[in-house]
Design goal:
The protein is an alpha/beta fold. The chain has one domain: Rossmann fold, CATH 3.40.50. The chain contains seven helices and eleven strands. Strands 1, 4, 7, 8, 9, 10 and 11 form a seven-stranded mixed β-sheet that branches. Strands 3-2-5-6 form a four-stranded antiparallel β-sheet, covered by helices on one side. Strand 10 and strand 11 form a beta hairpin. The protein starts with 11 loop residues before the first strand and ends with a strand. The structure holds adenosine-5'-triphosphate. The site of adenosine-5'-triphosphate has 12 residues, from strand 2, strand 3 and helix 2. GO terms for molecular function: ATP binding.
Length: 309
């Protein structure tokens, strides 16, 4: 596959080795045809490309999936659930996870240590069954370690009750899945709006926020499409808009490009880099795909429940 990413950043392994970087322009196309829908939600939709300093080449400018009509605004993450904290978004210390199936105990995670810093794109790679999803579930408070600590913005999640962890997930974390997880009967706009409803964002803010998020992922002209009327890449970009709508600090993505071809996968990764800048979000994702690793700031490689690099 060609190198297709919008920005060039060194990817570091846990040992600090830097991956070799080449020219990595985003491939010059979008996967969908002309828009046939009008914007009935009355929000801005003109298509000024990213500033020149933000793009790698004219080819990229032609392809930019992240079009905006105003200089992009930096949006500060909410601080309502957590006190201000300058340290890592995630600190994982000697985490183990075992499951009991019948009389058997399966030791899946065997002493994980990691750190995810603000506005980083961190990838977990490894073979099927190595423990990536198990770890990701714990990072998002969906599961608890058998032992060890996970700190979210300095707060020990294991000391929190279920209700507080659920509130944290709703307000501070966005989830993206391999299979998009969109509501099939709702339009792109309504899917993103649903996320704001779930996070108790005041209704008065919905219109601007939904428009902004769909604009950020390059779908301002597809707001009325329902999932089955969109390509896989477009559906995943709606899922990203949905995941960031409530301004989470952390985005967790489980194999977000696994169902996509290389071009659409590259567009998704370009969107990830853009939302890190604009929304100041931090992203941790799993992948099998070696071709997307170079867009990461840091890569952790897992084998049999441990990091090997
Ligand atoms: N709830 C559970 N009960 C028993 N075993 C489990 C449970 N969850 C995960 N496992 C086991 O833990 C191991 C790691 O699973 P996990 O899904 O984390 O791997 P993965 O690296 O994400 O794989 P893939 O890339 O295929 O998604 C597997 O052997 C799996 O069967």
């Amino acid at each position: 596959m060609k190198n297709l990413f919008l920005r060039k950043r060194p990817a570091k392994s846990q040992s600090g080795d830097e991956h070799q970087q080449g020219e990595t322009p985003l491939e010059a196309s979008t996967e969908s045809g002309e828009n046939t829908y009008n914007n009935e939600h009355d929000y801005p939709t003109s298509e000024t490309p990213l500033p020149e300093s933000e793009i790698a080449s004219d080819e990229v400018a032609a392809a930019a999936v992240t079009t905006v009509d105003e200089p992009q605004k930096k949006i500060k993450p909410k601080k309502d659930m957590l006190p201000p904290y300058d340290g890592p978004v995630l600190e994982v210390r000697n985490v183990h996870r075992s499951f009991q199936t019948g009389s058997r105990i399966i030791h899946v995670l065997k002493g994980i240590d990691m750190e995810v810093n603000p506005q980083q794109l961190v990838m977990l790679k490894g073979r099927s069954g190595s423990g990536k999803t198990t770890l990701l579930n714990m990072l998002g408070g969906l599961d608890q370690p058998s032992s060890g600590d996970i700190l979210f913005s300095g707060q020990p999640l294991q000391d929190w009750g279920d209700r507080r962890r659920t509130a944290l997930r709703r307000k501070e974390i966005g989830f993206i899945f391999q299979a998009y997880a969109l509501m099939p009967l709702l339009s792109a706009w309504e899917n993103v709006e649903l996320s704001l409803r779930m996070a108790d964002v005041p209704r008065a803010e919905w219109k601007d926020r939904v428009g902004h998020c769909l604009d950020l992922v390059g779908l301002s002209k597809r707001v009325k499409h329902r999932p089955f009327e969109m390509s896989g890449g477009e559906q995943q970009r709606v899922a990203i808009a949905k995941a960031i709508a409530h301004r989470p600090r952390l985005l967790l993505a489980d194999e977000p490009t696994a169902e996509l071809d290389s071009k659409m996968g590259a567009q998704v990764m370009a969107v990830f880099r853009n939302i890190i800048e604009v929304e100041q979000v931090t992203i941790c994702m799993t992948t099998h795909d070696p071709t997307i690793l170079e867009v990461a700031d840091h890569v952790y490689e897992m084998a049999d429940g441990r990091f090997i690099r």
